[in-house]
Specification:
Belongs to the bacterial solute-binding protein 7 family. With 329 residues, the chain is α/β, with parallel strands linked by helices. It is built from 13 helices and nine strands. It has a single domain, classed as Bacterial extracellular solute-binding protein, family 7 (D-Maltodextrin-Binding Protein, domain 2, 3-Layer(aba) Sandwich), CATH 3.40.190.170. 46% of the residues lie in helices and 20% in strands. Helix 6 crosses helix 11 and helix 12 crosses helix 13.
Length: 329
């Protein structure tokens, strides 16, 4: 009888763990957004490619919705070797490399294609070198998207309309200062705290790509959407340096290539969402305005010189690299 019970238990354990019993290594990916968000479309594509190309020798587990912590906590987990992969924006990493904040100056990038050109060239290589000094390996870049403003108080048509509005931003200095220069009372806050903060009136609004606004159901607490396009942000796909050094070279090649290939799929999802979600948000009752972006850009322009004064030639070079691949034709 005991043998039968033990056999049943072993079969149940096998069913529960499934692939992990056969896998040689397990790789965890942590994100802060909902499962159907473009970031997790990318995460699931990494999972599919890595497991397929390793013939099941690597199992990838994706944890969404801040299950493993907020962004800061997960970066620290990477640095301490307790989590394999996550991603954060370049400016968010300014906590460890301060000059990275300069990459989140408002209106630095004309559009998504401009950003892709910049990070696909010398800028992307130099950023990888910088972050690599802080316990992580940068494997590639995902698109975080073009950010727009929402709030519960008033329609935004220009800088004057932002005066007095408390707008949440990520904890990134130049990102925050961009919103201040645009006219808002910028308030740093973790993403997973944002919905409740808006619901309770702690902040009046926020700024994010359309995919974040839609998937996080911000239309339930914000009536107004302004297509300011003030920031196009890029996610750095990061792997724990401690754990990366323990990965077989052939597995490193598989993981690195999977990130690059998944980035194509992830960017396609961002573009698809940008094309379709505006009408969905309008159906949900959001009132959309299309402010003159040049008016906001003029307000933000002094931040370029501020960053050069603060960070010196490094920030100056990065800004020049970005401007050199701007296509205004």
């Amino acid at each position: 009888m005991k043998l039968k019970v033990l056999s049943v238990a072993l079969l149940a354990a096998t069913a529960m763990t499934g692939q992990s019993l056969a896998a040689e290594m397990v790789m965890k990916i942590g994100t802060v957004v909902s499962g159907d968000h473009p970031e997790n479309v990318g995460a699931r594509e990494i999972k599919r490619l890595v497991e397929e190309r390793s013939n099941g020798d690597i199992e990838v587990r994706v944890f969404t919705d801040s299950q493993l912590g907020n962004q800061r906590e997960m970066v620290e987990q990477l640095r301490s070797g307790t989590l394999e992969m996550t991603w954060v924006t370049t400016g968010f990493f300014g906590s460890w490399v301060p000059e990275m904040g300069a990459l989140e100056i408002g209106y630095l990038f004309k559009d998504r294609e401009h950003s892709f050109r910049a990070f696909g060239g010398e800028l992307g290589l130099e950023v990888a070198d910088k972050v690599g000094e802080h316990g992580v390996e940068l494997l590639g870049y995902f698109e975080a998207g073009m950010r727009h403003l929402t709030n519960s108080k008033a329609a935004i048509n220009g800088p004057d309309d932002l005066q007095g509005l408390k707008i949440r931003t990520p904890k990134s200095t130049y990102h925050l200062r961009t919103l201040e220069m645009m006219g808002a009372n910028a308030t740093p806050m973790a993403f997973n705290e944002l919905y409740t903060a808006m619901e309770q009136g702690v902040v009046d609004g926020q700024e994010n790509p359309l995919s974040n606004i839609y998937n996080a159901k911000f239309s339930e607490v914000n009536d107004h959407l302004a297509l300011t396009g003030h920031l196009h942000l890029t996610h750095m796909v990061l792997y724990s340096e401690q754990l990366w050094d323990q990965v077989k070279p052939e597995y490193q090649d598989i993981i690195r290539q999977a990130v690059l290939d998944a980035a194509v799929v992830q960017r396609e999802k961002v573009a698809s969402d940008d094309a379709s979600l505006l009408s969905e948000l309008e159906k949900e009752g959001m009132q959309v305005t299309r402010p003159d972006r040049d008016a906001f850009a003029a307000k933000v322009a002094p931040l370029r010189e501020d960053a050069i004064k603060e960070f010196g030639d490094g920030a100056k070079r990065w800004i020049e690299l970005i401007d050199s691949v701007r296509d205004d034709g």
